[in-house]
Amino acid sequence: MFELLGIPPQALFGQLLLGLINGSFYAILSLGLAIIFGLLNIINFTHGAQYMMGAFAAWMLLNYLGIPYWGALIVAPIVVGAVGIVLERLLISRLYHLDHLYGLLLTFGLALIATGVFRNFYGISGLPYGMPSQLSGGQNLGFMFMPNYRGWVIVASLVVCFATWFIIERTRLGAYLRAATENPTMVGAFGINVPRLITLTYGFGVGLAAFAGVLAAPIYNVNPNMGADLIIVVFAVVVIGGMGSILGSIVTGFGLGLIEGLTRVFYPEGSAVVIFVIMAIVLLVKPAGLFGRTV
Amino acid sequence: MIEALAPEGSAGVTGKPLLKVADLHGWYGESHVLHGVDLEVAAGEVVTLLGRNGAGKTTTLKAVMGILPKRRGSIVFDGRETISLPSRAIARAGIALCPEERAIFSSLSVEENLMLPPQVLPGGLSREQIFELFPNLAERLSSQGTKLSGGEQQMLAIARILRTGAKLLLLDEPTEGLAPVIVQHIGRTISRLKQEGFTIVLVEQNFRFAASVADRHYVVEQGRVVDMIHNDELDENIDKLHAYLGV
Ligand SMILES: Nc1ncnc2c1ncn2[C@@H]1O[C@H](COP(=O)(O)OP(=O)(O)OP(=O)(O)O)[C@@H](O)[C@H]1O
Ligand SMILES: [Mg+2]
C-alpha cells in the first residue's frame, strides 16, 4: 500500500472529503451572507441561528408532522425564510438609513434570542436526526470509502450554489438585484419596487442558510449551538473571499474547507486556526478580500 | 391615465400642460436648496433649464423624478399630483430620468443596462429603433456597462429610458464633457425624439446646444425660476441671458 508523504491515502482522502463537506456549508452560508450584505448593507449575524433553525425545522417537521427529509429540504427553507421576511419587514428595514453597526447589533441580538429560545425548549445535548434511507450506506471508490449522504451534501450544495449564481448573474431578476446593490435610488426611479426586492433577497439568503441546516441535520446533531460555532468560521470565509462577490464566496468556501482538511492531515494542531491565519494574511495583503472589489 | 400625446410642432404651453411644477421647495438634509420653482411643459415640447453651477437644476429634476427625499409644493404630471408619490410610482406614471452622473451599472453588461428599466407604458421605442438611433450600442452589447467610452455611456443612459414608454424625459447635461461630434449626435437624437412625440426637459450648460434643440428656456437662479425665454426670441434676449449665466 502506497503512502503519500508518510500519510496513508485513506486518511488523506478522508480528510479531503471532510474538508469538502465543511466547504459545502461554508459556501452556502457565505453566499447568503454576501447576497444580503450586498443589497441590504447589513452583516446578518442571525445567519448562524437561521442555519440552526433550518435544522430544527427539519427535526420538527419529521417529529411533529411526519414530513420526512426530502420534504423538509423544501419546506424548512421556505418556513425559515418566511420568518426572515417578517423580521426584515418588522425590524431590520428600520435600520437601513443608519450605520452598518446598528444592523449588526440588531441581528446579533436576534441570534442570541433565537439560540436562547431553542436552548430553553430543547436543551443543549442535541437531538438525533436520521439519515434518509435512500442515502444510507456508501461507495467504495477504491482509494477511499465514500458515504452516500456525504456525496449528496457536496452535490446538493454545488447545485444550490450554482443555481444561485445563475439567478444572480444570468437572469433579469438577478440584474435588478445587482443594479439595486450598486444604486438603489436609480433602480427605484426606473419603476422597480426596491423595498420588495430587498425583502425577498433577505428571505432568499435566510432560506439558503436554512437549506444548509437541513443538509447538516443528519451529519451533526440538531443542536441550538450548531450555528454559533459555525458562523464564526463563515465570517472569516466571507472576509477572505471579499464581502459582495458571489462566485468568490462559493470558491472561497469550498477552497477553505479543503485547506482545513489538508491541515488536519499534515498539521492537526493547526486545523482549528488555519482559516483565521489565512484571514489575517488576506486582511494585511488585500483588505477587500480575494474576490472583493475595493470600495 | 394614459392620454394620447399628440406631438406638438409649435412652441409654448397651449392648453393643459403635461408637467406643471408650482412652488416647489427642496432640501438636502437641513439645507434648503429649491425655493419655489415654477414651470410648465406642454406635451411634445423640449424645454431647457439653464443656470449657473449650483443653481438647482439637477435638484429640480430629482424632485420631479421623486428621488429628492425632502420636497414640498406641487408637481402635477399628466393631470395627477405626484409630490408625495415614491419614485417608482412616478416612473410608472411615465417620467424617466437620465441623470447627470449617467448611472451606468458596472456589474451589468451593456445589454442588461439597456434592458433594465421595465416597460411602464405602451409606446416605447423598440430595440431596432434604439439601435438605429445609437448604432454603436448594438456592437457593444456584451461589454461591461462602464467599459464604454463616456459618449457611449451617455448614449446608453439615454437609450435605456426610451424603451419604457415614458412620455416625459428628464435629461441632465447629456453633452457634458463630450466631443463635438458626439454632442451633435445627441442633438440630432433629441430632435428626433421630439418628432416621435416625447416631451423633454433638458438641463444644459452648453447654451448654444440648448438653443439648437429647445422650444423654450427657463432660467434657474438660487433655487427659483427667474425668467422664461422662447427660443425664437433668443436673439433679442441674448445679453440678458449672458448676464444670467455669467458668460
Ligand atoms: N447631495 C447634496 N447634498 C447637499 N447639497 C447638495 C447636494 N447636491 C447638491 N447640493 C447643493 O444644492 C445646490 C443645487 O445643486 P444642483 O446640483 O441642483 O445644481 P445644478 O444647477 O444642477 O448645478 P450644476 O450645473 O453644477 O450641475 C448647490 O448649492 C449644491 O451645492
Ligand atoms: Mg447639475
Order of helices and strands of chain A: HHHHEEHHHHHHH
In terms of per-residue confidence, which ranges of chain B show pLDDT below 50 for 5 or more consecutive residues? 1-12
CATH topology of chain B: Rossmann fold
- Please give the number of β-strands of chain B: 10
Membrane topology (chain A): Multi-pass membrane protein
Protein name (chain A): Branched-chain amino acid ABC transporter permease
Keywords (chain A): Amino-acid transport, Cell membrane, Membrane, Transmembrane, Transmembrane helix, Transport
Subcellular location (chain A): Cell membrane
Write the layout of secondary structure elements.
The complex is a heterodimer of chains A (295) and B (247).
Chain A: H1 9-40, H2 47-65, H3 69-90, H4 100-122, E1 138-140, E2 145-147, H5 148-170, H6 172-182, H7 184-189, H8 194-216, H9 226-241, H10 246-266, H11 274-285
Antiparallel strand pairs in A: 1-2
Helix pairs in contact in A: 1-5, 1-8, 1-9, 1-10, 2-3, 2-4, 2-8, 2-9, 3-8, 5-6, 9-10, 9-11
Chain B: E1 19-28, E2 31-41, E3 46-50, H1 57-65, E4 70-77, E5 80-81, H2 87-93, E6 95-98, H3 110-115, H4 127-133, H5 135-139, H6 150-159, E7 168-172, H7 180-195, E8 199-203, H8 207-213, E9 216-221, E10 224-230, H9 238-245
Bound molecules: adenosine-5'-triphosphate (ATP) and magnesium ion.
Overview of the molecule:
The complex is a heterodimer of chains A (295) and B (247). Chain A is mostly helical and 295 residues long. Chain A is built from 11 helices and 2 strands. Chain A has one domain. In chain A, 71% of the residues lie in helices and 2% in strands. In chain A, helix 3 runs antiparallel to helix 8. Chain B has 247 residues and is α/β, with parallel strands linked by helices. Chain B has 9 helices and 10 strands. In chain B, the strands form 2 sheets. A 6-stranded mixed sheet of chain B has the order 6-7-8-3-9-10, sandwiched between helices. In chain B, strands 2-1-4-5 form a 4-stranded antiparallel sheet, with helices on one face. In chain B, strand 1 and strand 2 form a beta hairpin. At the A-B interface, helix 6 and helix 7 of A face helix 2 of B. The site of adenosine-5'-triphosphate has 13 residues of chain B, from strand 2 and helix 1.
